[in-house]
Amino acid sequence: MGNPIVPDRGLPNATSLECGPSAGSTSMSPRPLRVAFIHPDLGIGGAERLVVDAALGLQARGHSVDIYTSHHDPNHCFEETKDGSLRVHHVIPPFPRSLKGKLHIFFAHARQLHLTAHLLRPSAPEYDIYFVDQLSTCIPFLRTLGKTRVVFYCHFPDKLLAHGAFVEGAVVRRQTSLLKRVYRYPMDWLEETTTRQADVILANSKFTASVSKAYFKSIRQTLRVVYPGINISAYEATVDDSHPDNVAVTSDNPTLISLNRFEQKKDAALAIRAFAILKPKLTSPALSKLRLVLAGGYDPRLEDNKLTLDSLIDLAKSYSLTYNVITPSSTKAPVEIPPLNAMTRHNPDVLFLLNFTTSQRTALLSSPSTLALLYTPANEHFGIGPVEAMVCGVPVLACDTGGPTESVLDGPGPAPEARTGWLRPPDPDVWADALHEIVALDDAERGALSGRAKARARELFGMEAMAGGIEEALVQAVGMDEVSARFGLDVSWWLMFLGVLVAAYFVAAPLALPFFRWVV
């Protein structure tokens, strides 16, 4: 077991595409490596699940792993990050996440540069390699000043997320002000410039790799695909059916589930609309009490999370669906549920589960009452939800774009006997028809599909396969020649240092905010 969480306060005020190795590869590194993970916010989400499982997988292969982050809340995190399984260093930055809801990416860069300075201080531990994901700001400093190789894991380019939705191979841009475009230009340039400094770049799917190469034209190296993997044994663990948290979410009534953070872009509204359209079509008495469970990470600090939950509740009410909102009772500091009217405590049509526990997730996925998992995001970069469902043999309904097209098998490509799920355009009527087909599966059809899904998940998306792919990249980077200086007299790196000072100015001088009031 590792050490418990370490709130690190060492600084003043610091509180063409390639795939990884074949699944099942167990080749070991020539020597154990000292690996430092750098992740901005160690909360609850797909990126965080990948970081946790990758760190656990590398530890199981004999490597020493530390995780550094600018934010870690023991009441809003995965259990492995607080139970001693992993060494987590929470380096508390002097910068906020935003300034009155503005300048998020600006302060994200400042916070990571603060974290980088902590790692580069003379008394900091030495590492053989850094594993960085989400934010690439730190890469040139770790390489040039730290003289250490860096592997970067790309989830999806932020420049595409910031400018609008990525739909069918193109960015559907939001209407933004001139000031917002001026603000984003250096941020987008910084992302591309620092990403290409990495010694090895990995991507979470062929979809992400192809998009990154298309929009980051200055990146010359080939992005290697290492699919996110999951700890399959965690999904096979015995669940305590008598635990109050599990009793609160499981039911003998047939159930559809959706596992996603409460964010607008995850489009959980699609699940509610399809569910509402489906219910009147069901004639079987056994399906008359069909229910929908929407479970996911919820952070009351984030306006998007709060607005999304409110809008989903309003949508359920507009369809005359009963609902309830719950959080795990075992959480030391549970999320406060806002006062809501007309909640149905017993057998609601829609159950909103905020910040589910690992046990609750496993209980829902392994319940014989669970008929399908609805994965609603379109153009998702990878999407771990479908893989979690397949591990448990649960049929998947997902959008027919992005990462799920690589994890879920559906017609007309594979033969019907190879299917592990349904891929459909994000149209509520189309989804309702697909759900009608899924809930009508007989025992033999459901059993055969379950077996195929489990086999595919174990072969391609197990933690061992992911850890092997990441280990291979780490070993490759460590084996390169001595780190060459790319700093030179390039003024761009000094501008990044200046950014820290500017961020500090904004913290100390909020009167500057009116100038940026249109930056969102």
TrEMBL record:
One of its GO terms (molecular function) is GDP-Man:Man(2)GlcNAc(2)-PP-Dol alpha-1,6-mannosyltransferase activity. Residues 248-442 form the Glycosyl transferase family domain. Residues 44-233 form the Glycosyltransferase subfamily 4-like N-terminal domain. Residues 1-30 are annotated as: Disordered. InterPro entries: ALG2, Glyco_trans_1, Glyco_trans_4-like_N. Its EC number is 2.4.1.132, 2.4.1.257. It catalyses: a beta-D-Man-(1->4)-beta-D-GlcNAc-(1->4)-alpha-D-GlcNAc-diphospho-di-trans,poly-cis-dolichol + GDP-alpha-D-mannose = an alpha-D-Man-(1->3)-beta-D-Man-(1->4)-beta-D-GlcNAc-(1->4)-alpha-D-GlcNAc-diphospho-di-trans,poly-cis-dolichol + GDP + H(+); an alpha-D-Man-(1->3)-beta-D-Man-(1->4)-beta-D-GlcNAc-(1->4)-alpha-D-GlcNAc-diphospho-di-trans,poly-cis-dolichol + GDP-alpha-D-mannose = an alpha-D-Man-(1->3)-[alpha-D-Man-(1->6)]-beta-D-Man-(1->4)-beta-D-GlcNAc-(1->4)-alpha-D-GlcNAc-diphospho-di-trans,poly-cis-dolichol + GDP + H(+). The chain crosses the membrane at residues 493-516. Its main location: endoplasmic reticulum. It is found in: Endoplasmic reticulum membrane. CDD domains: GT4_ALG2-like (cd03805). Pfam families: Glyco_transf_4, Glycos_transf_1. Keywords: Endoplasmic reticulum, Glycosyltransferase, Membrane, Transferase, Transmembrane, Transmembrane helix. Pathway: Protein modification; protein glycosylation. Gene3D superfamilies: Glycogen Phosphorylase B. One of its GO terms (cellular component) is endoplasmic reticulum membrane. It comes from the Eukaryota. Belongs to the glycosyltransferase group 1 family. Mannosylates Man(2)GlcNAc(2)-dolichol diphosphate and Man(1)GlcNAc(2)-dolichol diphosphate to form Man(3)GlcNAc(2)-dolichol diphosphate. This is Alpha-1,3/1,6-mannosyltransferase ALG2.
